Each structure stands twice: as C-alpha cells, then as structure tokens.
Amino acid sequence: MNILLQQSTINNLQSEIKITGSKSESNRLLLLQALYSNIQIENLSNSDDTRVMSQALSSTSNIVDVHHAGTAMRFLTAYFAFQKGREVVLTGSDRMKERPIKILVDALRELGADISYLETEGFPPLKINGTNPTKNKVTLQANVSSQYISALLLIAPKLENGLELTLEGNITSVPYIKMTLRLLEDLGIETSFKDQTIKVKQQSAINNQIATVESDWSSASYFYSIIALSKVGTKITLSSYKAHSLQGDAVLADIYLQFGVKTTFKTNRLVLQKVEKLNNLSIIELDLSNSPDIAQTITVTCFALGLECLLTGLHTLKIKETDRLLALKTEIEKLGGMVTITTNSLHLKASNNLKSQVAIATYNDHRMAMAFAPLALKTSLIINDAEVVSKSYPGFWNDLKTIGFQISQ
C-alpha cells in the first residue's frame, strides 16, 4: 500500500496520542515471562515484533519464523539454546538471513549450546537443539549489537550457575543493556555491571509480579519531529511516559530542545510544544551510539529545517531491517539533499532544496516510513509500502490523521 501525504498543517492542538508500550521493554518482559510464568505484563506493545515474539514463545512447532523481527531472532536464539530436549529451526525473512548472528551463537556455544547453521555460516536460519549449559563464563565482542548482550543476560538467571559476561571493545547502546539489567533487578534478580564485566546470579523462582511497560520513546520521536517543523505554539500530548525512563531514546527530550521543542511531564504524559524559532542554529552534531534508532528521525528533521547535520555512533544501522545509512542517503538525495556516509556516520549538508511528490522507498523498514512522514508539513510526498509501520506502530497513520495530516491512498 502506497500513500500520498499532502502538504498539511497540524490543526488539532488538543489531541492526546496514546502510544502503546515499548517493544524493547515488551520483548524483554515476554522472554522473562516465558522463564517465570508468574509475571503479568500490562501495556504490552501492539507491534508486529512483539506479536511475533509472543507467538514464537508459545509455539509448539519445531519451525519458528520471526519474519523481519531482529530482536526476536537474537532473544529467541538464546532462549531456545537452553530449553533442554527442545529442537527448533529458527528462521526469518530474506533480509533476516543477511543479518549476522555469529557473535551470539559463538558465545552460546561456549556456554554449551548445540546450534548449527542451515544455510550461510554466521547467519540464520539456525538449528537449535536445547541442552543444559556446561559453563557460566563467556566473553563477547560488545561493539556490534547490544541485543546479543541482552539476549544472554535475559536467560542468565535460569542458567544453573548464572552468568559472568566479559565485554570486549567499546560497548554499544549501553542504555539498552541497562534496561535489561533494570528489568531483571525489578524482578528481584541480583546483577552487577562493573567495568567490562556483567554478572547475573541464578534464580530459579521469583515472587508474583505485575510489570507495566512504558510507552515507546522511539515512536515518540516522530512527534518531536512534527513539532520541530511546526510554528511556535504548536503542542501535542503523548501518553504514557515516565520522567525517569529505562529507554535510551528518552534523550529526545534533550536533543529536541535544540530544535525549539520543550518537553513537559504531566501525570505520565509528555507535552511537546514548539517554544522558539531556530534563529542562530546552523548545524546539529550528535553522537548517537546510545540511541541509534532515532538517527533517521533527526536526519529528516534537519533536512526539513535546512540545517547541516553530523551524526556519529551509527555503526549498528548497517545491520538493521535495511542498511539505514545507505537508505537515508538514497531517499534524502531523491528529495534534493546531499548526504555523505561512512561505516558509522552521516553528514547532511545544509540545503533549502526540497522537492515535491517524491516517492519514498521504505526497504521493509518501519522507521524509514515514519521518519519521513513529518516532511508533509513542508511538502507533499508519497510513502511506498506504508503498512510497514505495523512492525512497531500499527496506528501511526491514523494518529497522524488525528492531528491534521491529509493522507490518501
């Protein structure tokens, strides 16, 4: 489904957008719920990724297909590795078969897992024969994906002797690791993270728990972009959010101050308001190594405002749903911008050249569709395969209509 976004103006300033739970928190809690059945989860994400994760954990089939869900692939690889007696083929989409998983598989094998590759060495699909762990210490390269680390930490309390994980190199996306540890600690599981070593103690049972998932900050980023592109005084309210979030993307509140967007917390709601024009701002420079998922949103915001933009710490974006750095470069240049990329950075030159009626390719990547949508406040554009947003935010287009976006198929 391709949609046309006609040039629009936000006209419903009283709207409150209800954003469902973070898929990062939801998927972690679902795996923990599979290990400890007395966990009750509230405000679970309604995203495709979370639905896939939930179905996979409850499936009795010996073939589990996660489609495009990268988080599910990493977490489930660790989960099934030590489900003794269970044999599973874990597979996914064509793109998933191009996304590396060797670092995680090597670590699990070192702990005693029986995992083999069915097609290309180092990539899904995987054949997993559930075993008992034989060791409780492992070393992992830490600068590729924090999901490898979180996958190990989530299963750690159910391993016979817990886990001691030593991280090598610069640690990427630290907030996501801290999120995982905090969720474990909230369940009463003892953890420590000192220097490059993380320890999780074994715990066979926990007390009854109700875990409430905070709404997704990555999804909030698109509304930050919308407010940044709007006139002074424009306001949107989002729910449900915490002033002290576990999510790394909560840094949006600080970043978007540079764009004149003020964030106010009111009874678990975010009030976003454009409070000033960008009179003297010419360049945005950010290290997003701890929050790479908001890179697309920030890049498009800068492009729409005619700002130069230099983003670093983006090395994980090349192994996401698509090569997000290349995809950003391709689509922004179609719109009239100029972008230079390296393996871990993006440099957008300042430009006021914004073409109209350009069709944006989304590359099976939900964030490409949603990051470019705010451009409709500046020009008309087409979003190809717009239904891809269901991966993380199924109600996105309806929520944009609520605040005044003109959308047609």
TrEMBL record:
Residue ranges annotated as transmembrane are none
| Location of the active site | D293
Stretch forming the signal peptide? none
Query: Which pathway is this protein engaged in?
Result: Metabolic intermediate biosynthesis; chorismate biosynthesis; chorismate from D-erythrose 4-phosphate and phosphoenolpyruvate: step 6/7
Q: What is this protein called?
A: 3-phosphoshikimate 1-carboxyvinyltransferase
Q: What is the protein's quaternary organization? A: Monomer.
Sorted UniProt keywords: Amino-acid biosynthesis, Aromatic amino acid biosynthesis, Cytoplasm, Transferase
Q: Which organism is it from?
A: Xanthomarina gelatinilytica
Under the heading NCBIfam families, the entry gives:
aroA
One GO cellular component term of this record is: cytoplasm
Binding-site residues, 3-phosphoshikimate:
K23, S24, R28, S145, S146, Q147, S173, D293, K320
